[in-house]
Design goal:
Largest sheet of chain B: 5 strands, antiparallel
Largest sheet of chain A: 6 strands, antiparallel
Strand content of chain B: 25-35%
Distance between the termini of chain A: 52 Å
Structural class of chain B: alpha+beta
CATH architecture of one domain in chain A: Orthogonal Bundle
CATH superfamily of one domain in chain A: MetI-like
Number of helices of chain A: 15
Shape of chain A: flat
Shape of chain B: elongated
CATH class of one domain in chain A: Mainly Alpha
Number of helices of chain B: 15
Structural class of chain A: alpha+beta
Order of helices and strands of chain A: HHEEEHEEEEEHHEEEHEEHHHHHHHHH
Radius of gyration of chain B: 37 Å
Helix content of chain B: 25-40%
Radius of gyration of chain A: 31 Å
Number of strands of chain A: 13
Strand content of chain A: 5-15%
Oligomer: heterodimer
Chain lengths: 532, 740
């Protein structure tokens, strides 16, 4: 036995064990997020339990777990939905109390614009003199009708009224500016003309509002009656229904189609109900845009630093200082960058810009408050080291023979750099950029204080001049996870959504990292050949 | 020729711009430091006098005051005249005669917000109300002083001179206490009870409470008792506690909640000298006591830790004046106050930070004092008829090194403590800016993370660099991918998945390490048991794959054994057990959860750097060791690890730096309570998480804002030192290896 220990093999196994644990941790984590995140859109069967006390419950099976400190007894968590009726989305049921269980064929899952899912049975259409029975298929045309109506209402609310508000704000500022000037005949004239224009806008605004009211009355006209499992009936305006389906009757193919459709809706739609339902499109859009603006800022700085370190300096004190600085930029906590961004970019630079260019909008800050530009610049500082390291690797892998050949042909140092080194090092720069993007996409702490919000009223990119609104606040995937997971009022119901958002963020980061690895390997291969 | 010149110019330009651009990174790091420091710096800056101006009054003023913009001051003379003086151009704006004074001298004054209550030498108590109305005309601020006489509050039936007075005016209740020339202490309260018709029925009570302060002490003769004079009075805004300072250095605390039957709560010796002035701080919880020798102390009702009895305790001592205190004026903004002494010295103090911020002097003996409503100006009238106005800048009185890092006795606490509580529900809240609980939390979180991460990361790195089969090289990028995982994902999983899970299976978690070691041992034995022929089939360095099922089995097994273990070791309920036996209450989001999540974030960092270092140990060293007959394990432990140890150390340091600054994981996986407790079952708040939580609500330029910048500066400097050291160590090691 002692001999065996002397060979050290058991210790090797032990160290191997730690590596296995690390591997299992990362793989387990990815699998966990995959499983939890991918399950959200699968149409779950609706199960109906008859309980000992005679009550009947209907809902989606959520999970089953042993009751703590009781042997061989289990309880089931059931998503019973109908939040407007029951007050809660989930219900724990003792398995011992379940008499029978079945999957009713006609049970329906109804996704609503408000109050979460409803589970029940379609009774019919509500009419003046009673209820007219109807089939599930008959409701489809009504749904598409109400979808068109919904789009129309959204269009008026967002686009048309938004446009009026935008113009109104412009006139208001102009008026304020004119008022501050010395009164003269000219300004008087201008003021009256603006006032006339504002009156017109006011009129068209009230017209739009009237239109909306009439549209909403139309929307409320058609109602269906849903009978709940406990025997009560609920009247539901068709307009409230987003989707209605019958999960117990769906085949695998139908479910798959449904799954793909739901996933698409998730990434392409706007959130509803305080971010706990609907999609995450604004968060994805905000993340992408922030990352792009950041790359524009970080790549030049990082690349120049790397060139300096590799080509323009020997091992002198400045070079060493630069290296220490780069290392420190990588090591300083991200929240410190956030604090710097808040103090320097937002209050100092942004406040200064406001004072000079947006005087008339004060005291409402334009650039003097968090926004996508400041968040991007803050992250750009944070990700400089990533670009520097990768670019350095790219430059150092350019064979010396190439550089010497260029110099021998009479090229200046800059020409060699521009024409030979940089093109050859492009994959390295690209790697750095991708890695920086991955880092920025996942970073949340500095963004929280430099311009991310839980719900941005408008995207930083739209149809009004100057189209890109760098001062606007934006939404971000990582912050979305934090916000919905930790600050929403109904965390339990929102949890699947958070997992799915996590999955999207994880995939983004993983894909970016894999892309960086692939690009880097290409770089290595290229020089493996060229150095032959 | 021309193109050659042009080329040279371009080349030069490129050279300089690239050098400059490269150096820009140094500027960035410098800018980070300098800018954050500049935001912190004002915390350390003292109070400054912006402007001192002197005005002359007609005579001696008994009360002065100023509006919140410090444009108009008023002075009340002892003959019942009130003058309003513009501080901008030294002009008399308005003069008012208090009715009913009849040229009789005002002998005592008490200010209660806008109300000035005065006692006269014929035993009457009068009140006036002074208000400054602010209006805007053409964007210009116009301040109009308004003064009105209130009803006569009290007429002493014996008509004796009123020497001291204190009064508080509430919505429906007014309580006034006066001390007369002939040594009587009289309490008067007026309550207005609204009746159905909207009118008010007045309910007045007048009580003579002289006996309460004349209770004979055991060691004093009646002769001495007679000599005891009340020298100052103060009543709090709850109209419950009346304090009376005496010529023997005592303070009587009289509970006047029951207006008809007040009783003496306590008598405390506060000084060897006569008490000359009493004044409440904002919030009327702490009482400033000034004495004949110039001593200034802050007292408060505090609960005793052991007996939980309330008693009057000294909580702060301020710098003494060299002469008796004349008057105390407290700020309406913070826990600051001004004291003046008979020799004309004026101190601006702050109770919480126990510092005297400003020390100025008036020309003659001061008679009355006012602290401007925004706490940015002091107004003093002296016996020579001068009115002196100091306009001051006093942005951060509450922060000193002691309040930031030391124990402070805050209002309402039993003893001095380290507390972080930056905002409260009320205006009179005392901000508590001790960074120590946050620093403690940061260290606690880091320690728990490192306990998990360091062994796993270093052992895994050792294995990867020395024993792992070359065909499994993809393992390293997989672990590096761990570093790319956004911390918000780790935090989310830790807070919403791991924390509830751990609460369920904590006992299983306790046995898990043993099970893992057992399963590794089992795997090793199994492997030894199979024939040698089969062994060679599996190449060396694939243990990591063979172990996967065993480790999974260990996890699975420990979860199943968890319940059994719980009933054996913890008597069926581990939470109850820890609470009963070790007095540790269980929080769902606790330090162990954070340790796991943050350890997860730190492992790849330590792993990557130390793996790099161990694989870069020169092959010659390893070959020499092997040639001398060492087995691979001996080579690894005796040669590779010592050679790479500086880099491993620097890897641990860099991991430490990462854990110190980690924000999202801590924010999401702990309860964020700033407590100082090593208990692994409760949460904590770190510097980084604290910044993230509080800075969005911190007003720009305020004390909280700057203190949070200080927290950032501490993080920055800590990580800067750690990273720079780590980098220097690595550079040295690289050089040493390159020589080998």
């Amino acid at each position: 036995m002692r001999k065996i220990f002397k060979t050290g093999t058991p210790y090797v196994w032990l160290t191997g064990g730690t590596l296995t644990i690390s591997l299992l941790m990362i793989i387990g984590l990815i699998i966990l997020i995959m499983v939890k995140g991918l399950g959200m859109f699968w149409p779950h069967k609706l199960v109906q339990y008859t309980l000992q006390d005679g009550a009947i419950v209907l809902g989606e099976f959520s999970k089953k777990e042993p009751i703590p400190h009781q042997k061989d007894s289990y309880r089931t968590k059931l998503k019973v939905g109908n939040r407007d009726v029951y007050g809660i989305d989930f219900r724990w049921i003792d398995n011992a109390g379940i008499v029978s269980q079945e999957y009713p064929k006609t049970a329906l899952t109804i996704e609503r614009r408000e109050w979460g899912n409803m589970y029940g049975f379609l009774k019919g259409m509500r009419q003046d003199n009673g209820i007219k029975p109807m089939e599930l298929a008959e409701i489809e045309p009504l749904l598409s009708e109400s979808q068109i109506l919904y789009k129309r209402i959204r269009h008026i609310e967002k686009r048309e009224i938004g446009k009026i508000n935008h113009k109104m704000e412009k006139y208001r500022l102009e008026l304020k500016r004119l008022m501050m000037q010395q009164p003269s005949a000219n300004t008087e004239k201008k003021i009256t003309s603006i006032k006339v224009k504002m009156d017109e806008l006011e009129k068209s605004y009230s017209k739009k509002v009237d239109m909306l009211t009439s549209l909403y009355t139309v929307a409320k006209e058609k109602e269906v009656v849903i009978s709940l499992v406990d025997g009560s009936e609920k009247i539901l305006p068709v307009f409230q229904i987003i989707r209605i389906y019958n999960p117990n009757e769906m085949g695998i193919y139908e479910k798959s189609c449904f799954y793909v459709m739901k996933f698409w809706k998730f990434v392409s739609e706007e959130p509803r109900e305080a971010n706990t339902e609907g999609g995450i499109f604004p968060a994805i859009f905000g993340t992408v845009m922030m990352v792009l603006i950041m790359s524009i800022a970080v790549v030049p700085l990082g690349v120049i630093t790397a060139i300096y370190l590799r080509e323009y300096t020997r091992d002198n004190i400045i070079a060493r200082l630069v290296r220490i600085s780069v290392n420190n930029l990588a090591g300083v906590p991200s929240i410190v960058f956030g604090v710097f961004g808040l103090g320097f970019f937002i209050y100092f630079v942004g406040g200064g810009i406001d004072k000079i260019f947006y005087q008339d909008a004060l005291p409402t800050s334009t650039f003097g408050t968090g926004g996508i530009l400041w968040a991007s610049l803050t992250l750009a500082l944070l990700t400089v080291p990533v670009v520097v390291v990768a670019t350095e690797e790219g430059i150092s892998s350019v064979p010396t023979s190439l550089k010497e050949a260029s110099c021998a042909l009479g090229a200046t140092k800059f020409e060699t750099l521009w024409r030979v080194i940089l093109p050859q090092a492009t994959p390295g720069i690209l790697t750095g950029m991708i890695l920086a993007m991955a880092r920025a996409a996942g970073e949340v702490a500095p963004l929280m204080i430099t311009g991310v919000v839980k719900l941005a009223p408008s995207l930083p990119l739209d149809g009004y001049f100057p189209f890109i609104h760098l001062e606007r606040k934006f939404m971000h995937l990582g912050f979305h996870i934090y916000d919905v997971g930790f600050q929403s009022p109904n965390i339990e119901a929102a949890l699947p959504m958070v997992y799915t958002t996590t999955l999207v963020l994880l995939l983004t980061v993983l894909v970016l990292n894999l892309a960086a690895i692939i690009v880097r390997n290409k770089l290595r291969k290229r020089y493996a050949i060229s150095s032959l | 020729m021309k193109t050659l010149k042009k080329k040279r110019v371009i080349d030069r330009a490129a050279h300089w711009s690239i050098t400059f651009g490269g150096a820009a990174v140094i500027f960035v790091i410098l800018a980070l430091f300098v800018f954050i420091f500049l935001e912190v710096f004002p915390l350390l800056k003292g109070t400054k006098v912006l402007k001192k101006s002197t005005y002359s009054l007609d005579e001696k003023a008994v009360a002065v005051g100023v509006d919140e913009y410090q444009e108009i001051a008023y002075a009340v003379y002892d003959d019942g005249m009130v003058d309003f003086i513009s501080l901008l151009d030294d002009k008399l704006i308005k003069r008012h005669n208090i009715k009913d004074v009849n040229r009789l001298a005002i002998t005592s004054v008490c200010k209660d917000n806008d109300l000035i209550v005065m006692g006269t030498d014929d035993g009457r108590v009068l009140a006036i109300n002074i208000d400054f109305a602010v209006s805007f005309e053409n964007d210009e601020r116009i301040i109009t002083p308004e003064i009105s006489d209130e009803e006569v509050v009290l007429i002493d039936d014996r008509g004796k001179c009123i020497k001291h007075i204190t009064s508080k005016n509430g919505e429906a209740v007014t309580v006034t206490a006066v001390y007369t020339e002939d040594g009587r202490l009289i309490l008067k309260s007026t309550e207005i009870e609204e009746n159905l018709f909207g009118g008010g029925a007045k309910n007045e009570t007048i009580t003579d409470i002289t006996d309460l302060v004349k209770q004979p002490p055991s060691d004093k003769t009646t002769e001495q008792i007679k000599k005891i004079q009340i020298t100052s009075l103060a009543i709090d805004l709850f109209m419950e506690n009346l304090y009376a300072g005496t010529s023997h250095g005592e303070v009587f605390h009289i509970n006047v909640r029951n207006r008809v039957n007040p009783f003496l709560r306590e008598k405390v010796k506060v000084s060897d000298e006569s008490v000359t002035a009493l004044g409440f701080l904002l919030g009327d919880v702490s009482l400033v006591v000034g004495d004949q020798k110039g001593g200034v102390n802050v007292w408060m009702q505090a609960r005793d830790e052991l007996t939980s009895e309330w008693s009057f305790k000294k909580i702060h001592t301020l710098k003494s004046h060299s002469a008796g205190i004349v008057s105390i004026a407290s700020s309406l903004r913070n826990k600051g106050f001004v004291t003046v002494a008979t020799d004309g010295t004026i101190h601006l103090n702050h109770a919480t930070s126990e510092q005297t911020l400003l020390n100025v002097k008036s020309k003659a003996m001061p008679t009355s004092l006012a602290f401007s409503p925004k706490a940015n100006g002091i107004l003093v009238a002296d016996s020579a008829g001068n009115l002196t106005h100091w306009s001051i800048s006093n942005p951060h009185p509450e922060t000193t090194l002691k309040t930031l890092f030391g124990k402070v006795w805050y209002e309402g606490y039993e003893k001095p403590e380290y507390v972080w509580q930056s905002t409260g529900g009320t205006d009179d809240f005392e901000p508590k800016f001790s960074l120590l609980p946050l620093i403690f939390g940061t260290i606690k979180g880091t320690v728990y993370a490192m306990i998990l991460a360091v062994p796993i990361a270093i052992l895994a790195a050792l294995y990867t660099s020395q024993f792992l089969n070359k065909s499994l090289k993809m393992v390293k990028p997989v672990i590096e991918l761990m570093a790319a995982l956004p911390s918000v994902i780790l935090g989310f999983l830790a807070g919403l998945w791991l924390a509830p899970l751990m609460e369920r299976i904590f006992p299983a978690l306790v046995v898990m390490p043993f099970f893992m070691i057992l399963s590794i041992a089992a795997a090793f034995c199994l492997w030894k048991c199979i024939p040698k022929r089969m062994q060679t089939k599996y190449r060396n360095g694939t243990e990591v794959l063979l172990l996967i099922p065993f480790i999974i089995l260990a996890i699975y097994g420990s979860i199943h054994v968890g319940d059994l273990f719980e009933s054996l070791a913890f008597g069926g309920d581990y939470r109850q057990w820890f609470l009963d036996v070790m007095d540790l209450p269980y929080d769902q989001r606790n330090a162990i959860v954070v340790g796991f999540a943050m350890g997860f974030a730190v492992i790849p960092i330590i792993y990557t750097i130390s793996e790099d270092a161990m694989s870069n140990v020169p092959g010659s060293l390893i070959s020499a060791s092997t040639a001398l007959g060492a087995v691979p394990w001996q080579t690894a432990v005796r040669i590779v690890v010592p050679a790479a140890s500086p880099a491993i150390f620097s890897a641990v340091m860099i991991g430490f730096g990462r854990a110190v600054g980690e924000t999202m994981i801590v924010l999401m996986a702990t309860g964020n309570t700033p407590i100082m407790d090593w208990n692994f079952f409760n949460g904590f708040r770190t510097l980084a998480a604290n910044i993230a939580v509080e800075i969005p609500e911190a007003p720009f330029g305020g004390t909280l804002y700057r203190v949070l910048f200080l927290a950032a500066l501490i993080l920055f400097v800590t990580t800067f030192i750690v990273n720079t050291l780590a980098e220097l160590i690595r550079q040295r090691m690289r050089k040493r290896f390159s020589r080998l």
